[in-house]
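Morning, I've got a small favour to ask if you have a moment. I've dropped the whole record in just underneath, so have a look.
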Amino acid sequence: MTALTAVPPFMGAIRAASPEGFDTAVFGAPHGTPYSEIDNSVHAAAPDAFRTALAADAEWLDHWDFDLGRPLLRHGQKICDLGNLKTRPKDGAHNRALIEQTTRRILQAGSVPIMFGGDDSASIPFLAAYSEQPAIVILQIDAHIDWRQERSGEAMGFSSTMRRASEHDHVWRIVQAGARGIGSAREREVSDALAWGAHIVTAREVHHNGVAEVLRHIPEDCNCVISFDCDALDAAEMPAVAYPTPGGLSYTQVTDLIAGVAAKARIAGFCMVEFVPLRDRSKIAAFTAARIAANVVGRIGPLGA
């Protein structure tokens, strides 16, 4: 891990070298697995952008949070920030090993991991790390379905996140919300996803039928890991992504999805990826993304808490 010095820990979390004794552990993964033709370093400053965005709010944790209907942290809830992993822009194997090892260490400590990427390929080892845990349901909130077998000869890149997740025995359901526009998926990838059993709910369906259209696919009492890609949000609210697309979800729809999962299941982990800090001139996009992560922190806990 790299130490947090000038950058504050996320949302008033305690700086720590180990997740032991904490309910939730945050860490940054600046790089995932690169494609030869795409520079993944544009996402590298995202973890610190999220930390900085909520630095002032960390002083008000005892105040009422109207997203949650109560103060953000439950009495006694302990959160640590482990800093950023020492990932390398061009070394996918090294990055995957670091991410998976760190996530496993957090889970073995009995904590809930929260990872800030990096591009979406960082989610592949994050999800793989649950192999020794109870089976998980994945809720992917994303503009793209990420079911490519490979892209440019690379099978571990950001176009293949859900395809790789589907290959794990510990992943027993995948629910995908927010798909829209055009991405790397072709007709064969959509067919493969549906044949596997993925539940795909487009952004248009969410707009027309509400978040209940997604939540009906989340089983009661399951362990649900939420994989959030910032481009799931509409471009008007989230311009700081690689591929802004109109017609996306709103902040309120996303936080309603988080609340809906927490009301019927356990949030067992959260990863947030695909943020491009250089496109966030006003810093409002980083604040929006960080507030989504804060909603997750506030919803983590025992079923019904």
